[in-house]
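User: Can you help me understand a structure? I only have the sequence.
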Amino acid sequence: MPINPSPILCLTMVTLLGGCSGAPDQTAPVTPRTHPGWQSAYITSNGIRLHYWRTGAAGKPALVLAHGITDYGLNWTSLAERLEGEYDIVMYDARGHGYSDKPDGPYDLAAHVADLVGLIRALSIEKPVLMGHSMGGGTVALAAATHPDLARAVILEDPADMLARLQPLGEGIIPDWKKQIRGDRRAGRAKLIDLARKQRHPGWQDRDYELWAESKLLVHPNVVDILHGDGFGDAGVTYPRLRVPTLILKADADAESRKKHLEIAGLLPKGKLVHIDGAGHVIRNDRPEATEREIRAFLSRL
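Assistant: Let's start by predicting it. Here is the structure, written out as tokens:
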């Protein structure tokens, strides 16, 4: 169902999709930032070059993290640092994001799924746990549903396929969203950090603001073309096909919304949904301790 552009467009995107964002220009960093002990590298998948960071824990269970729209791999840093002692963690930049290739298109969900499957195969990762936030949630859910031998388990952080089922986003918002992306780029890093701290994501750690702002300087406006066609996917179609253990971490919500969320999660053959009190869309940064606790409890049962 199309939604006409309006003054509340940016607020809608912030609430549902992780924020409005910026595009690459001369203010964007040229090379990936380093993280002590982590690998930064590239592979070719589905005909494009994808960049990723990897914690390098050889011989440990693999955890592949797919970020939300307009973000990049390092937006997972705080969570990855909590888990890297026990897991081999891969945080990749989706096409059009971060340091991965930025073609004019395509940016549909099928392309993102093919990229993820190709990444896992190129890195010879066997049966990883797949975790995705927002758009990344739609990506990992569909990848696991359509490639039943790909993943050991799935974790979905406020997944966009569930959000879109309850509040559809139509193609009508694409032009204004692209305009906002370019506007955030022109605002620059310092203003983006200030904006996130005061309006979009209050209560985060300082470094998470810096990484969030950096991701907005590196994203291609065309990533929002995912809203053409099937958009972020349909949980009602995908979830019944997910045959691996699945955990959904859901943002805080009122009683009626929670009931709807649980109904959708009930479509999962082996699924569980947990609402995180006080959390917004980026649950792992809003409530890091509760997020870690739920993830560890889920993984311990695999």
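Now, to help you interpret it: The first strand starts at residue 39 and ends at 45. The chain has eleven helices and eight strands. Let me know which part you'd like to focus on.
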